[in-house]
Amino acid sequence: MLSSKLKEITPSYTIGISTKVKELKNQGLDIINLSIGEPDFFTPSPAKDHAIQAIQMNHTKYDAAAGLLDLRKAIQNKLDIENNVSYAVDEIVVSSGAKHAITNTLIALLDHGDEVIIPKPYWVSYPEMIKLVGGKPIFLNTQRKNDFKVTRKEIEQAITPKTKIIFITNPSNPTGAIYSKDELKGIVDICLKNNIYILADEIYESICYVDSFTSIASLSTEAKDITITINGLSKSVAMTGWRIGYSATNMVLAKAISAIQGHLVSHPSTISQWAGVSALTSCQTETAEMVHTYKTRKDLAISVLKKIESIGFINPQGAFYLFIDISSLKDKFKWHHSFSVAFSDILLTHGKVAVVPGIAFGMDDFIRISYACDTDELLEGLNRMKTFIENL
Ligand SMILES: Cc1ncc(COP(=O)(O)O)c(C=O)c1O
């Protein structure tokens, strides 16, 4: 018999879509996949070369649970220079991806029944991670007029004596919205007043199309103390498979996270960590080129979407997604459980384009597309979607 925890866990929508796409492709169908949340670029050479060197130099033994000192120093330097926040090396823990850094944090902070506020739309894995460690996700509605960024007032209304953490994804997956400094100050203020931790998921921080990005921890010493800064190399340096993420927190929490990680997995692969050192110190040009390409694709995608009258979308300021409002098409579909799933299924089978239904992010009137894919494929996929919607 499986653990009762698993009764509440929803299988991943995104993995379900990938499986369907594979099946259809195996049948010989020409499918354009706009559902993937992974850079289409290869890992830059400096990172790959450093990993090969690490193997040849036999850097293949156990190391510190918190991560290689060289990598933590590189992260410390990056946070200092790029994010304007200074952490001690021992306040940083390197984990197997941002996902793992978040899970470690939740294990360290949550007691059974503790509440975690998740503003909608949210990244698919948050609720399941929280439930798996015995916490209670509290979903918070946000407003379209604010690009679905949560406000101080909305948070205030969701707080209970059991609230322990709020998740802020900045830039957002799925909307690409970025919080301004003033918006973040309001959030910090309410969290400080109510003793709530802020889990600042900044994994898309380097994919930013606006002039300035503010890390929550950089706002003040008090803000830094209650913030868990989560970041990693999956998106910024196209290193999804290497599994390198990290948390930067206050010292007490960092020690707890390191102890948890030490018992569960020891530490992420040392080879990946050596690659990470070069990713952070020698791949800035490659990251800038990728961001430039994403921006070009974003502008291209928007120019097509603007021509489809019956939809709307959030103008992204970062990340590589577009969150598209399809609510005006509701009366053209029959569905039982979810409109966005019905729409996405029919778009896949009839329009030959794979997208992620908005229900995966808690909002059934939307779909998400990714522009982390080849530019020609993106254009073809969008044109197919346009034809599909216009012929409904
Ligand atoms: C918002 C957000 N956080 C975290 C992650 C996980 O990243 P990693 O590959 O570092 O585990 C993702 C990946 O899609 C994400 O979109």
Automatic annotation (TrEMBL):
Pfam families: Aminotran_1_2. Residues 30-381 form the Aminotransferase class I/classII large domain. Its cofactor is pyridoxal 5'-phosphate. It comes from the Bacteria. GO terms for molecular function: pyridoxal phosphate binding; transaminase activity. Signal peptide: none annotated. Keywords: Aminotransferase, Pyridoxal phosphate, Transferase. GO terms for biological process: amino acid metabolic process. SUPFAM superfamilies: PLP-dependent transferases (SSF53383). Its EC number is 2.6.1.-. Belongs to the class-I pyridoxal-phosphate-dependent aminotransferase family. This is Aminotransferase. It comes from Marinisporobacter balticus.
